[in-house]
Amino acid sequence: MGDANVFGGKNYSMRVWLDPAKMAAYGITPTDVTNAINEQSREAAAGSIGQNSGSSFEYIIK
User: Fold this and answer.
1) DSSP character for 18?
2) How many CA atoms lie less than 13 Å away from 19 in the CB half-sphere?
3) Residues 28/37, Cβ–Cβ less than 8 Å
4) Fewest CB within 10 angstroms: 17, 29, 34, 52, which?
């Protein structure tokens, strides 16, 4: 482990395992992975009880 970052103040977490051989093959660094996660992270509230009105929501997770 070379670095740890805290994202936000919420109680959410994600563990990401990096394969050095695959990263070298793709020519990416741990910073590239961190930046991609930051760019694609979304916190989407699905609403509260009684506010959905029967509608459905769809979120694409990359």
Assistant:
1) -
2) 4
3) no
4) 17
